[in-house]
Write a structure and sequence with these properties.
74 residues, alpha+beta, three-stranded antiparallel beta sheet, 3 helices, 3 strands
């Protein structure tokens, strides 16, 4: 993980590191939230399994992160 972080920080290897991350993401599904401008995103793909393994507490349900869009009326 440390080498991967270094690759992201190095301008010469950054694009390859981003490509590696993208290859682990199958799909990002967006769903409208309850409030105006609110959006929920669900990440699908191998990256979710890696993140579950890394945090040592597997989660079998989707992780949803919510953020109100900039400039929207909340």
């Amino acid at each position: 993980m440390e080498r991967f972080t270094q690759a992201l920080e190095d301008s010469e290897t950054r694009l390859d590191a981003f490509d590696a991350i993208r290859s682990l993401i199958h799909r990002i599904v967006l769903h409208p939230g309850e409030k105006r401008g609110e959006m929920h995103a669900t990440l699908q793909g191998a990256l979710m399994g890696i993140l579950d393994f890394a945090k040592d507490t597997p989660q079998h349900t989707a992780i949803v992160t919510t953020k109100v869009a900039q400039g929207s009326l909340a």
